[in-house]
From TrEMBL:
Domain Histidine kinase: 128-339
Gene3D superfamilies (UniProt xref): 1.10.287.130, Histidine kinase-like ATPase, C-terminal domain
SUPFAM superfamilies named in the record: ATPase domain of HSP90 chaperone/DNA topoisomerase II/histidine kinase, Homodimeric domain of signal transducing histidine kinase, PYP-like sensor domain (PAS domain)
CDD domains referenced in this protein's UniProt entry, alphabetically: HisKA (cd00082)
Transmembrane annotation, as ranges: none
Keywords: ATP-binding, Kinase, Nucleotide-binding, Phosphoprotein, Transferase, Two-component regulatory system
Catalytic activity: ATP + protein L-histidine = ADP + protein N-phospho-L-histidine
Underlying gene: ntrB
Protein name: histidine kinase
Entries under Pfam families matching the protein: HATPase_c (PF02518), HisKA (PF00512)
InterPro entries listed in its UniProt record: HATPase_C_sf, HATPase_dom, His_kinase_dom, HisK_dim/P_dom, HisK_dim/P_sf, PAS-like_dom_sf, Sig_transdc_His_kin-like_C
């Protein structure tokens, strides 16, 4: 079994893949369980034959324009079964030819659109990684503490070692949440610029002189209500994506927005955070799927960063959107101001 197949077996989301002929070449354990057969029995079955009724799969396989499509509420069953299961299905082309097929059972997301959610399967997959990462993180923190003693008289050295320690603590807390899920900690009023300054420090350490980082802040902004660690992680994901896209200039801009509708709620005041870069931009073929898990424009990318960033925005009753062309990409995070949230004037 390949490393990729083993990784897919950690997921609880049904996933299968086909060859160029449209026949199943592999499936993870969750897919086999969901269809009620063994993964071995799925081998060689035409993908179109798994559709209980209709021809959505057949049309998607024959129409290149439907590459990347999300097929809604498709009835699926192993040939010969009389009990279909319904799922929203995402299809994407494989580099080697054929298709990736990701099924989100409809009954797992009652009343919600799975394209807007970070699947619970993601958490399950990350738990295995969490166990492997805790020991290296502990070693990094110990090394940073020892180094701090050696640079006690160097202000810059102290600042950098403190940054390493704080980031290790943040990542350790994230791993703890993955291993032992607990209710989210209460949100607190915070200045969004404190979050952005922390992100900029990380970017300076990561990119060095290769990237010009620009602050374009409105200093009069009110606080937002949120989790500083989650917002740091979300914003850092956006900035790091810009760095990986080859940006030479990255601007972090903040502004106030009045009478802003986020989802179904009208907010008297919201904070707009923009991450602007001059990198390669979002690949056109990924434009409609960029916030889905496991979708990445980088060969070495995990495809998790933007999905997590969008999830954090939603946790804070905000939104994340983007516009992009080569040389100019803007990711826009909207967050309700703390005053509106605290006084209940945002319509909730």
């Amino acid at each position: 079994m390949s490393d990729r197949a083993l990784a897919f077996d950690l997921l609880t989301t049904p996933i299968a893949w086909t060859g160029a002929d449209g026949r199943v070449e592999g499936a993870n354990a969750a897919c086999a369980r969901w269809l009620g057969v063994s993964a071995k029995r799925l081998m060689g079955v035409p993908l179109a034959a798994l559709e209980f009724e209709g021809d959505a799969f057949a049309r998607a396989l024959s129409d290149p324009a439907l590459e990347g499509a999300r097929l809604r509420r498709i009835p699926l069953a192993f040939p010969g079964s009389d009990a279909p299961r319904f799922a929203d299905v995402a299809l994407s082309a494989r580099d080697a030819g054929g298709w990736w097929v990701e099924a989100h059972p409809v009954d797992e997301f009652p009343g919600e659109d799975p394209a807007q959610l970070l699947p619970s399967a993601l958490s399950a997959a990350l738990k295995g990684l969490a166990h492997e990462l805790r020991n290296p993180l502990a070693g990094l923190k110990g090394a940073a503490q020892l180094l701090a003693r050696r640079v006690a008289d160097d202000a810059t050295g102290r600042e950098l070692t403190a940054l390493v320690e704080s980031e290790v603590d943040r990542l350790t807390a994230l791993l703890d949440r993955l291993l032992s899920p607990a209710p989210p900690r209460p949100f607190e009023p915070l200045n969004i610029h404190v979050v952005l300054e922390r992100v900029l420090r990380l970017a300076e350490t990561d990119a060095g002189w290769a990237v010009r980082l620009v602050r374009d802040y409105d200093p009069s902004l009110p606080d937002v209500l949120g989790d500083p660690d989650r917002l740091t992680q979300s914003t850092w994901n956006l900035v790091r994506n810009a760095i990986e896209a080859g940006a030479a200039n990255i601007t972090l801009r903040t502004r106030a927005e009045h009478q802003v509708r986020i989802g179904d709620t009208l907010h008297p005041l919201a904070i707009r955070v923009e991450i602007v870069d001059d990198g390669r931009g979002v690949p056109e073929e990924l434009a409609e799927r960029i916030f889905l898990p496991l979708v990445s424009g980088h060969a070495a990318g995990s495809g998790l960063g933007l999905a997590l960033a969008q999830q954090v925005a939603r946790e804070h009753r905000g939104s994340l959107a983007y516009r992009s062309r080569p040389g100019h990409t803007v990711f826009t995070l909207l967050l309700p101001s703390w005053t509106a949230a605290e006084e209940g004037t945002d319509g909730e």
